[in-house]
Write a structure and sequence with these properties.
Layout (H helix, E strand, L loop, with lengths): L1 E6 L6 H9 L4 E5 L3 H13 L20 H10 L4 H10 L12 H9 L7 H11 L8 E5 L7 H6 L3 E6 L2 H9 L3 H5 L5 H18 L5 E5 H6 L1 H12 L40 H4 L2 H10 L1 H7 L10 H7 L18 H13 L8 H5 L2 H12 L1
Parallel strand pairs: 1-3, 1-4, 2-3, 4-5
Helix pairs in contact: 4-5, 10-19, 14-16, 15-19, 16-17
């Protein structure tokens, strides 16, 4: 089986995308089967460098404590620990963020056939295959949110990768209103959410055009489903992913899947959520999102009413309207160093890509794409 990781920012349509793909006979996709494993491996990597991080799957903005190739090397050197994997699996029993669940017997069968010399990509591949819904599927994988940083090392190991992107204003509306908390937990600072969204974009642009990888916009998936899936089928190496307008979304058992939208009751693919943010998101938050993400909005073809010259003042004047429960994140969006960094990033996007591009834009290739977008 060909291994696949589908990822993206929370509330970007990752689950819808996974359900559409996972309903096809040639594909077997699990839904967030090992979120604790993805978190634990990244946390262990940081701990090995004497670093502690409450949110290890971070946004990577101004990350200079390690290089991406060092993380990739760690994944290649990583070896499975059966006791640790069992403990992580057991701990997820009380975690609502694990959607596909397994019996302890299924986990034991999977671990019993896991080669002990497997590195992280090989271990994850084995687990996806051993626990696949369809033993005859050509592609076996999973959807895990916020795991974009894993994609380059996995692609190097022969995996396929997909990122789904959604208008950040719609993401914020889905996170912070309606049933958002039931799917994404307590409200996080607006700037933190937007930085996490930019991580998705940065890695998508950096990997754009690489064999075995593709990124799609949520808006294209729900408004041009057949054409979008035709392109994805080529990336995944399957003949086709049949889809007709009006087809219901089904789970791996063939049962209709009720969408997990924050604002709509749906059982199929609908374009209704595309514009909901205009009625739900406070105007000042929408304007702030445009200012913070303006280069990315332009690069992805999303409309914006904010001019690039006005963006710094908007960033500087923003005041967080949401109550932030986690004390360590209080005041995050308004911290002077964060505000200064965002304004400096908006300035630097016009510069030629150089050795500092990785700190500000994650890769020089991403910087080049964003610079081209704002200069057009």
């Amino acid at each position: 089986m060909t291994p696949l990781l589908l990822t993206g920012m929370q509330r970007s349509g990752t689950t819808l995308f996974e359900k559409i793909l996972g309903g096809q006979p040639a594909l077997s996709l699990l839904s967030q089967p090992f979120p604790y494993l993805m978190i634990a491996v990244k946390r262990d990597f940081l701990a090995a460098r004497g670093l502690a991080e409450a949110l290890p799957l971070g946004h990577l903005f101004l990350e200079d404590r390690y290089r991406p190739d060092e993380f990739a090397a760690y994944l290649r050197a990583w070896r499975p620990d059966g006791a640790r994997l069992r403990a992580l699996s057991a701990a997820m029993g009380a975690y609502s963020g694990q959607y596909t669940r397994f019996t302890s017997e299924a986990i034991e069968r999977a671990l019993a056939t896991l080669p002990p010399a497997s590195d992280f990509p090989a271990t994850l591949r084995h687990l996806y295959e051993a626990l696949a819904h369809r033993s005859q599927a050509r592609v076996a994988g999973a959807k895990e949110s916020l795991c974009e940083e894993y994609l380059p090392p996995l692609l190097d190991a022969g995996w396929r990768g997909l990122i789904i992107l959604r208008d950040p204003r719609a993401v914020l509306a889905s996170l912070n209103a309606g049933r958002g908390a039931a799917h994404a937990g307590t409200v996080k600072p607006t700037l933190l959410n937007l930085r996490n969204w930019r991580k998705s974009v940065a890695i998508a642009l950096a990997l754009d055009g690489r064999p075995g990888f593709a990124w799609v916009r949520y808006e294209d998936l729900v408004t041009s489903t057949p054409a979008t899936l035709e392109s994805i089928a080529r990336t995944l190496g399957v003949d086709r992913i049949p889809w007709r307008p009006g087809d219901p979304v089904r789970d791996h058992r063939g049962e209709p899947w009720p969408a997990n939208s924050s604002h709509h009751e749906m059982t199929g693919v609908s374009a209704a959520p595309v514009a909901t943010w205009r009625d739900v998101l406070p105007r000042d938050v929408a304007t702030y999102a445009e200012a913070v993400c303006l280069p990315e909005l332009k690069a992805l073809g999303y409309p914006s009413d904010v001019a690039i010259d006005d963006a710094p003042a908007i960033v500087d004047g923003f005041r967080e309207p949401y109550a932030i429960v986690r004390g360590s994140l209080a005041g995050y969006s308004e911290r002077a160093d964060h505000v200064a960094a965002e304004i400096e990033r908006l300035r630097r996007v016009f510069d030629e890509p150089d050795r500092d591009s990785a700190r500000w834009f994650q890769t020089a290739r991403t910087h080049y794409a964003l610079r081209s977008a704002v200069l057009t």
